Amino acid sequence: MTVYLVGAGPGDPGLITRRGYELLSRAEVVLYDRLVDKRLLLAARQDATLVYTGKQPGHTDRQPDLNEQLIRYGRSHDIVVRLKGGDPFVFGRGGEEVQALNEAGIKVEVVPGITSAIGVLTSAGIPATYRGMARSITIVTGHTGTKEISGETQLETPLKSIVSPSGITEYDEAETAIPEDGEDNIDWNCLAKLKGTLVILMGVDNRAEIASRLIGGGLSKSTPVAAVENGTTVYSRTVHTTLGHLADIKLKAPAVIAIGQVAALDLIDSTQLPLSGLSIVNTRSRNQAEPFSSLLRDAGAEVIELPVITFKPPDDGGLELRRHAAWLNRYDWIVFTSANAVEAFFACLRDARDLGGIRVASVGTMTGAALRERNVVADIIPDKEQSTAGLVDIMPAAGPISGRKETGRVLYPKAAGAPPTLGDGLRKKGWLVDEVIAYRTVPATRDDGITDELIEMAKHADAITFTSPSAVYAYLELVEDRKVPSVVACIGNTTANAARDSGLAVDVVAKEQSAEGIVRGLIEFKKRLAGE
Ligand code: SAH
Which residue out of 201, 207, 229, 237 has the highest number of ligand 1 atoms within 8 Å of its CB and is therefore the one to mutate? Predict the structure, then answer.
């Protein structure tokens, strides 16, 4: 029965606060604004109700309706998150929402966010203050104050709105001209005299008027100006100009306009990392998207997580796996071929000591990493081809075991529908193999929290990565028109062949089958393209 007003930060989904993220992942209802990056919604519970509060037909001032909606959800649900771009109390009408909720007797908590007014500049290498250059920051709306123009106010002016590839909905700021003197409650003459940094939000359409009023107030035409579009995202674009030329530059909302000496600075070279400027889709499942996403980000890429597959327990709910895990002392080996199998198996392990002296075979670096996370170091890992055939090759043959009548026994927790190659191969080497279904791989659907906007973002990214054939199939099922980004990167030959068989052109096949291998492959590909 609490409504949380949560600041989503300026754009990059990584810039929400921990508290905000945690609430988002627990909320039963999430009401989100136009400026909120749609990737953040993946953090919501799969059964959460997601409500878009952007443009609706009929416009006029929707705030009263929105307040009503918040009150209604606040009465009927325990945790309601009202997700707002930037900081909830900076030009977002968050104050009004809190008041309305207070009046209705509903508990409210406000979680601050990084405001675009400062964060967007920082990420573009423009410090809002700088010793000796700017000792104040003044944040101003380029709109009309709270005055209603054509039935719309402040933020509520999306006459036209389309989803940009960045997932930030662009909107047209037309018909919001600064009114004639006297009606405008902003004293531009005064602002012209401040000497610090002036930051204008929602000022794209009125920039000519703003410049001329500031110049009229005595600010020099040569004052540096920087405008940052789509800040903190890979689509970010910074234009450096002067006040005299602000009207002449091309500029699209959303943009932050900084006016003052600091606007001439450019302290961060955003092109310094090998994958800078590229947006890359990571199709791994939610629980496995990391650490791959982090590796891509560290290399400078903007990551779009589109978890095309989800993992479900086996049809029997995991009963059989639990039964085998409870009787481990009869096994000589456990073989793991995926991080999921590792996860499912360890969830059934009652006591770490039950593993005793059982030897562990593992194929794939991600599988190995999942084991290491649980403090298990595999005894054998194929050193060349990371495939089940490679594993069969290096497994010893089962010999008669002293003191026992039967030959050695292997436990193989696997995915439903996994090919029989590994089990058959091991049996040929004399092993008794218990193949137990540990999980099912299911293509994700819109019910799994994947929104149309997220799919649009993914399709328009620069590159997409696949780490298994099932991810390829699931992506093509999810994206009805089967459009893929222009660069397709696969973790290995099996996945690449699945992609080719499905009609995709594969540009990158990782040399080592690992997350690092894909990142390296993408970097080499980019270098080749650039002719380096
Ligand atoms: N509460 C928000 C501001 C809402 S007003 C905050 O604290 O950031 C909306 C304006 O914010 C836009 O018109 C634009 O000027 C600015 N803005 C928000 N996100 C932005 C982004 N990613 N890049 C550039 N400007 C942005």
Answer: 201
CATH number at residue 155: 3.30.950.10
d(CA 203, CA 532): 41
Neighbours of 165 (CB within 10 A): 18
User: Do 234 and 317 belong together in one domain?
Assistant: no
User: Are residue 328 and residue 391 in the same domain, yes or no?
Assistant: yes
Q: Give the residue numbers spanning the domain of 366.
A: 312-442
The rounded Å distance from CA 330 to ligand 1 centre is 62
233, 371: one domain = no
Mutate to test the pocket of ligand 1, among 35, 169, 236 (most ligand atoms within 8 A of CB): 35
Question: Among 395, 433, 436, which residue's Cα sits nearest to residue 414?
Answer: 436
pTM over 0.70: yes
The answer on 301 and 448 residing in a single domain is yes
Instruction: Please report, in tens digits, the pLDDT of each residue of the chain (532 residues total).
Output: 899 999 999 999 999 999 999 999 999 999 998 889 888 998 999 889 999 987 655 556 788 889 999 999 999 999 999 999 999 999 989 999 999 999 999 999 999 999 999 999 999 999 999 999 999 999 999 975 433 333 233 333 332 333 444 444 444 443 345 555 445 678 999 999 999 999 999 999 999 999 999 999 999 999 999 999 999 988 889 999 999 999 999 999 999 999 999 999 999 876 689 998 899 999 998 888 888 999 999 999 999 999 999 988 999 999 999 999 998 988 999 999 988 999 999 999 989 999 988 999 999 878 888 999 999 999 998 887 777 888 898 898 887 655 555 678 999 999 998 888 899 999 999 999 999 999 998 999 888 878 888 999 999 999 999 998 989 999 999 999 999 999 999 999 989 999 999 999 999 999 988 899 999 999 999 999 888 7
Active-site pick, 12, 38, 202, 507: 202
Query: Do 149 and 32 have their domain in common?
Result: no
Kindly state the helix (H) or strand (E) to which residue 479 belongs, with its residue range: none
Q: How many folded domains does the chain comprise? A: 4
Which residues, at least 6 apart from 79, have a Cβ–Cβ distance to it below 8 Å?
Answer: 2, 4, 23, 26, 27, 28, 29
Rounded distance, CA 168 to CA 230, Å?
Answer: 8
Pocket of ligand 1 (CB under 6 A): 10-11, 35, 84-87, 90-92, 115-117, 120, 155, 168, 201-202, 228, 230-232, 253-256
Q: What is the CATH number of the domain that holds 106?
A: 3.40.1010.10
d(CA 451, CA 305): 12
Q: Take atom 15 of ligand 1 and give the residue whose Cα is closest.
A: 201
Side chain identity at 77, as an amino acid letter? H
Q: Which residue, among 482, 481, 500, 480, has the nearest Cα to 490 in the 3D structure?
A: 500
The rounded Å distance from CA 237 to ligand 1 centre is 14
CA of 116 to the centre of ligand 1 (A): 5
**Domain-terminating residue out of 99, 114, 129:** 114
| Tokens of residue 92, six digits | 């977002």
Please tell me whether residues 238 and 300 are part of one structural domain.
no
Residues 195 and 343 in one domain: no
